[in-house]
Amino acid sequence: MRLRFAGWSPVWASVLIMMLLAGAAQAQQLPDFSELVRDQSAKVVRVEADTERQRSQQMREPEGREMPDLFRDFFGDQIPGMPQQPQPRRSQGSGFIISEDGYIVTNHHVINNATEVRVRTSDHRIFRAEIVGKDESSDIAVLKVDAEGLPAVTIGDSDALNVGEWVLAIGAPFGMDYSVTAGIVSAKGRSLGERYVPFIQSDVAINPGNSGGPLFNIEGEVVGINSQIYTRSGGFMGLSFAIPSNLVMDIVDQLQTEGRVSRGWLGIAMDDSYNDDPDLAESFGLDRAIGALVVHVYDDTPAREAGLRPGDLILEFDGREVNRYSDLAPMVGATRPGTEVDLLVLRSGEEITLPLEVGSLPHDEGMVIGQAPSDEPDMEAANPLNIIVRDLNREEAREIADGGVYVTDVLSGPAADAGLREGDIITMVHGQFVTSVEEFEQVMANLPEGRRIALRIVRDGTTRFISIGLS
Length: 471
What we know:
Helices cover 18% and strands 37% of the residues. By secondary structure, it is α+β, with helices and mostly antiparallel strands. It folds into three domains: 220 residues, Thrombin, subunit H; 97 residues, Roll (Pdz3 Domain); 83 residues, Pdz3 Domain. The strands form five sheets. It has a six-stranded antiparallel barrel. Strands 9-10-11-14-13-12 form a six-stranded antiparallel beta barrel. Strands 16, 17, 18, 19, 20 and 21 form a six-stranded antiparallel sheet that branches. The longest helix has 20 residues.
């Protein structure tokens, strides 16, 4: 029997048949998740938490005000500064079983401030759960229920996950148990402001209630915990974020064995604007703004002991590339205190290696550099930057550990064009510390012409670098 198409030549009929066959073949290549879901659903649980009466903060803005773009928790009916009447709260999310004897992992924000936590399994059993440990910085919590023989997930290697790879989430969005959504990995190592979590970004549909649930790879291994979404309305908009499984299990191990999490620490402050400033990168002799730019090294810290200095660009940590300042904190935080590592640093145009022993993140890490205003002297500018500076007074000198000079006037010229302001304190010029007007003038007299230089300044208590082009 021969197929005939009215008005079609045999050639066009053949082309059509080939296109249909190619489409069918392509459809057969799409993954079928049914077996994975059948095998893994029983290992996912629903987590419910009752909290004390507290002041609720609703997600919606007051009428007439537009909702800003924010990263929100899946349960995130919380926005700072918008208090409502105190009311009781019951939160719910997801979790997954990691051992047959009842250990379960979920998100910290799911059970935070809970007075009672319950876990519902796929066979409709309800258990009261004990909070074994929780870590707010990584948004991870470990629960324990009194049960044996539970089905446990297999943990995969999140480092081996590839962008473009299929992933799948199972959870309880809006309380709808064991809902399944799938997508691909969109990016890895995303920083959302949390210093110690390099998130996995995917387009898997995630909504309130998925929080704390597993993200599976195509092999049925857990490669992450679904934790956050990027949204304007509170619903899914195609951007979801999961905590990598390798980080999760390191935190889980510490919570189970020690009850708390120890993180690595260097003791530095970094310039968060450097990686978006190609002019500043040029002043360091680079054609790309890569690395983490050190603006301050605190006293009695691992970084100080290793010889790290302000103005150093950290290019590698323990053999791993640091492309942006936000890459460094997760690397350091995931390193156990006491570990010996090498830092590859660019200093004054040369790459050097600094051995360093990673310290332990202190609970009182907050350190701030301040400044105080003072009177301006009557001086004339006589330097390539066309600015007037004075020595720091006694109070300012106590606040600025590295010393510096106080900018009293910024006249028309390269410094003004670069955004230098009156009240800025200059602590370093072109890689050299300046602690007095005399030192400042000496450096000014030897600045290179026709290139960009970097100034390290303290402004409103924050240390940063700015790039200035010299004519």
